[in-house]
Specification:
Blueprint: E1 3-8, H1 25-45, E2 51-56, E3 65-68, H2 74-87, E4 92-96, H3 105-112, E5 118-123, E6 130-136, H4 151-161, E7 165-168, H5 172-175, H6 181-186, H7 192-197
Parallel strand pairs: 1-2, 1-4, 2-3, 5-7
Antiparallel strand pairs: 4-6, 5-6
Amino acid sequence: MSTLLVIPLKAPQACKTRLAPALHLDARVALVEDMLRAVLTAANAARGVDRRLLLTPEPSAQDIATFPDSGSGLNTELARVLHWAAESSYSRMIVLHADLPLVTSEEIERLAYLPAGVAGVAPDRHEAGTNALSLPLPAAEDFRFAFGEDSFARHRAETARLGLTLQIIRSAGLGFDIDEPRDLDRLGTDASWIREAMPCGATT
């Protein structure tokens, strides 16, 4: 039994454009790097994860191996990684987004320690998007990723199509992602490093 954890990450300049009203480009790039660092800290401390990869079109300054993103879109790129993971005899692949600044190692362990044959889906706090997936292999090798609008519902439907047992994993850290300016205020004092990344005088 071995588990691969994959963290997708766009090129820094293309990340979090919806935060532009609150953060200038340099601040957004710094924020993305800081959130990735927080996610990696949790991922590195999580038991049950055997390998961690960053799916990205560009090298990262973070200490993590990378899987090259060829630019064909997130869902297609993740399918490539999933097939590679199955061919490499991994028994589970976890997809964890990089914009989850409050995620903990214990929450990641919940994704890693699902029983064999069980898929896990962690929705965002709005129960609309998907912030993490845990897919058993080889049973889910043909899983069709559906990140985008209403991905939570689409991923639930996909597990049913494949006949997989599904466990929905709801938690504070897995549910809280940063997409819009108001999300920065919702963090409060839990992540002061975000404030340090913001330009002087910026408001959300």
